[in-house]
Amino acid sequence: MNPMIGIALLYAPVLLFGGLFIYSLWREPRQFRNSIYLSLFLICLATNLLMGFGQEWMILPILAAITICPIIVIVFLGINSIVVARHEGLSRTTMLPALLAFAIVLFFIAFPLLTAMHAPRALVSIAGLIVLEGIWFFFTFTALLAYSWIYRLLPKRRRYDYIIIHGAGLQGTEPTPLLKGRIDKAVRLWKRQQGYGKFIASGGQGADEQISEAEAMNRYLQQQCKVPAEAILLEDRSTTTMENLEFSKSLITEHSGGHDYRCALVTSDYHVFRAAEYAHMLHLKADGVGSHTKSYYWPTAFIREFVAISIDHRWPYIVIACIWLISLLLQTFGPALSQFMH
């Protein structure tokens, strides 16, 4: 084979996934697939560079990293879960890092352990399914973690007509520190625009809340941030992120009079990508803008976001399960079917 053709074939996946990433990013940055294209591009590029220019000894640190990194991650997640529980109290949410650490352990030991114990074939097969699903889970987790940071760093120096602030719970009638961070970030953005644009305080009233989150934000904006009342619109019906955006879009449509507009979605930094992706689904012209989150809470918050995004993009898990089931059926009934055919 011509060496040039060999090189072209070797780098074809790199060019393919790199091209897909650039095109998809240019078309729409707010898409989950961008994280997949970017990760596949980096994996193919790193593999080709290692094969083309690496030395045999370079395999050793890579194998060491593959062995040690999961252990470090498991220990970190366990400690983080304890720290978050001390600050925020024990709950299903604060236990997410510990649950992920357990999933990593299960991912690595389930299949070899059951095989070594000569477990029933059905259990070994189920463990194999766990491994297959786990590979996709951890791959997409890493991909989204990397891309969500990139998305937050993308230039967004626009002049926004509307600034949507996503609710985040109340302490009595006052915004929580998390919500205050979002409001303050939105106000800084508004001041950078020299007071141009309107705020949309978006958040309904929970069963345990005295007033709506929108009203609490309204009071904080006027009393603490000195924002005039005419610059604030209230969306006080929503209970989820999707409803935040749906109802805010209806409010914007009502007040924009059909004119073209651009808005910013101000939420916590860990929540930016999912909010922006939902906005894309609703055809809402918006950019995600993140406010700071305490470092100890970031892993818990991102895991929760990833689970929500994985549920929205669950079809790969379904496809993997279907392939596994078909393979299992062929292994179980294939010999009998072959004998019957002959």
TrEMBL record:
Ranges annotated as spanning the membrane: 6-26, 35-53, 59-83, 95-114, 126-150, 315-334
PANTHER family: ENVELOPE BIOGENESIS FACTOR ELYC, INNER MEMBRANE PROTEIN, PROBABLE PERMEASE
InterPro entries in the record: Cell_Envelope_Assoc, DUF218, Rossmann-like_a/b/a_fold
Domain DUF218 span(s) in chain numbering: 161-307
Key words, A-Z: Membrane, Transmembrane, Transmembrane helix
An example Gene Ontology biological process: Gram-negative-bacterium-type cell wall biogenesis
Region forming the signal peptide: none
Gene Ontology CC entries for this record: plasma membrane
Protein name: YdcF family protein
